[in-house]
Structures are given as C-alpha cells and as structure tokens.
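seq as requested:
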Amino acid sequence: MFKARYNVIGVMSGTSLDGVDLAHIIFDVSNEKWSYKIEQCTTIPYSDIWVNELKNGINYSNSELQTLNTNYTELLGETIKNFIEIHHISNLDFICSHGHTILHQPQKGLTLQIGNLPEIANITKQKVVCDFRVQDVKLGGQGAPLVPIGDRILFSDYDFCLNLGGFSNISFEVNKQRIAFDISPVNTVLNFHANTLGLEYDNKGNISASGNLNTELFTELNNLSFYQKTFPKSLGFEFVKETILPMIERFQISTEDKMRTFTEHIAYQIGKVLDSKTGKLLVSGGGVYNDFLIERMKSHLPTIEIIIPDEKTIQFKEALIFGLLGVLKVRNEINTLASVTGACHDHSSGKIFTPN
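struct tokens:
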C-alpha cells in the first residue's frame, strides 16, 4: 500500500538564475485527490561566479561540462543539506530535485540538467528523486514542460496556468487532454537588458514602462518561426542567445525602448495563445512582480480573469510541482504527459538515488 502523506523537499533552479528554490512540502492524498502545504521555503541566491558559470555552460566542452556537473552537484547537495539543518526538518521521505538546465536541444535528442549525479544522495544523506527530463527526450518528447501534470492535479480550479519565469509557459485542458507549451522568453531577455544598466532585474517593470514601443522590432519578434509552430514546443536559452538577443541588438535604440518593446511582445504572444478564450488564469513565477507586464497582459486578455496566488505559490510553484513529480515517480505513477511533451506515451520519469 502506498502512503497517504509524503514529507518531501522540492528543489528548482530556473533559467532566470536568481538562485535555488527550496520548499519543504507536505502532500496528502485521499480518494485520488491531492492537497499540499508548503512549510519552510527559501531561495538561495547564486554567487556572481556561479551565475557566470551557469550562463556560460552552454559553451563548455564535454570535459568542462563534466567538471561543472560535479561541482554543481556538490553545491546543490550542500545547499539542500544546509536548508534541512537550518529548519530542523526531520523524517523526510525524500528530496525531489530538478537540477539546472544547461543544454536543451530535444530535436537533437539532448537535454542536460546538472546537479543530478548520484553523489547528491550521499551529500544530503537522503533519498533523492531527480533528472526528470532525460527519459522523455529518449522517448521522442521535448523533455518539457513537465509542470502541467502538477497543474492538472493541484490547480484544477483554474482554466489556465501560466508561469512567468525565464520563459513563459502555459497549460490547460483541451478535450480532457492536458496541453502545454512554452510561449516566449521573459526574464531571460528582460534581466539581460536590466543587467546592462547595472541592475539585477527591472523592478516592477518601471524601466520598461519608461521606454517607447519600437514597432519594427515588435513586428520582427512576432514574425519569428517559433511562434508559428504548433505544440508541443519548448524553448531553451539557446533560442535567446542565438536568435532573440542578436535581433534586438541590431536596433540602435535605447535599452528602455528594447525592454518596453520586448515586454509588449511577451504580453502579445500570451494574448495570441488565449485569444477569444474565457476563464480564470493562474499566474505564477517571478514575472508576477513586473506590474507593467501584468498591466500589458490584461490589455491583451480582456475576457480572461487574471489571478495571482499567495506569495509561497507565486515563488515556489515549480519547486512544489517537482516535489509532486518525485512523489509520483516513487509511487510508479505517471508524472509526464505525452500530450504535453510529444513523447510516444505517458510515463513515470526520473531517477532515484539512495545514500551509500
């Protein structure tokens, strides 16, 4: 018999590079209905050195990537171990960790999340469920997005679930099938330009709001071939580095205008996805704090009710859902949907490591 309660830690590091999200979560299941409570949670920022390593990992050789993977596994393991000790967390069932995506090229059968080496179990002295994406790519899927099954199980009261992180991604039901896909870059681009002004990010979207919309750049962005593709589809930092940033840099306009134009692009693409639809849209992720972006989204979504949840859910929804994915893996239940990733079938993805 499976347990009815699970005491776990969910761990997530996203493309925004703001740090490692850790959430201590209690999951309960009764009559196949899941509920959760987020207990202690925090984000541990990366040092400048680690931000540079994670940004540049895409350019590393295989041997350099192996070294990076080893070092990052040690960093992540120690970070989780400290979180457990600081908050006096006991009787854990296991840790569920996403790792950090360095390469994501599913069309080449490749996705790499560092920090998922077996040593993480020895460092934390806990069972660890991790490396959730590789199996899906081997089964012909995109390896992403993986969060939608959590949206279905934990947030079924909402018609649509949108995450605004390094990229925007959405999930919803169509004919009793979960559909999900990446929409566009978000903070990967906005933070890059804020960094050029000596800032970590655009606080409340004030910089973007001060700029002017460049219609030529706006049109070029919207005409990119990715936006014409049907789902399943996903984005990696490669798309930002090779396509988006060079396109923006060709325009001799102010940083404020670049950010204003890209913010409009984000909102416009979300509006296109939800065109003519009605219902409740749950929005989470760091982009929720960008007031200007939310304002522009509302103007493109006149028939949608935008709902911003409690602080813990905003900040730790992905860590929460990777916690759930780990629970489902341990129960040998489906945690990855073929309707979302394009894999040849639904499956239970992830690796389980136990300490020596």
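The chain is about 40% helix and 25% strand.
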